[in-house]
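Re: that chain you flagged

S.,

Sorry for the slow reply, it's been a week of failed gels. I finally had a moment to sit down with the sequence you sent. For the record, here it is as I used it:
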Amino acid sequence: MLRQISRRISQEELATTKPAAERAAHVIRANSLPAVAFDAGVLNLVFASWLFGAYPEHYWVLYLLEFPVLTLTIALKWHESNRLLYMVEFCWVINAAGWLFLVLELLPFLGAGGAHALAAPVRLGLAHAFFATANGPLALSVFAMSNALVFHDVERWGSIMIHFGPALVSWSLTWKRAAVQAAWPGAFGALATQAAACATQRAGAARAACEQENAAATAAANAPLALYFTWWLVYAAWLLIFGCTLPERRGSRSSFGDMRPLCAKLLRPLGVGRAAVRAHAVLYLVIHGTLVSAALSLLPSLLRRSWALHGAFLVLLLLFVVRQGGGYYRHAFGEKLVRAVGKELTEAAKTE
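Prediction finished late last night. Pasting the structure tokens below so you have them in one place:
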């Protein structure tokens, strides 16, 4: 009799715990890593690291190949989740411009003619702009956006690519200049130039040429800010006319929409209400312009002085994204998974 009662109790316990166990297992499987994406991420990191270390003069070609693929993949995902407005932000637009600049430098080597499509002063200005934006606002966005090295997530990988990738390209093009010129003769022009003392030149053609060269160098040095404020003016017009209302009207997500609560909080002491969306947009534009201008003017000029300092900055960025990635994996497969399983077990107990 006792044996029969004991067997019945065991069967009842199994019947009640099995559904809960199955539900918990389902949660764990749903949160498991996608194998193909993880493998592709790891292999891409290994290959990119090898290429950057062994053949840095060719690293920029890898960026050229990966950027459109990742951009298209992320754009399709964001279109489904109504987040496509992020693509009009400076980081994505300037990456597209930098990618186009690299494409134009590659064209002469693809049978498109021996001459470069752009004049030398324009190429020099774009080279300055590429270095400044890569090591200024884009690189600092790694910290601001808490970029994490997560292998299986294409969106996080894309964020690292647009914020960290250009800085790696700029380091290889700037400090491995001899190898770049040997592998790609004439590409990227003179990546750095110095103003000559034109006063020592005699009047005439020599002095005119010297002054013209200095004017080109000055224009190149101002190119990063000119390029940024070209985007800023177009973006400001779009944002103030109708872009600022899109998050509310269509339920879209955007950088301005993410920052609007902070802008509203800052303007509240001035009597600006929460409904004053264009006032919030103006403050957002002012903050954006101030921060990016400072980033373009200060950090790149410092990093351009030393390959070691520039390299140390890149190592700092790498250590940050690695630590953030480790924190993501510890959270995703630790506390987050525990909470998800606990919630499912609680729901199972209620239904039973």
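What I noticed first: The chain has 13 helices and no strands.

Talk soon,
D.
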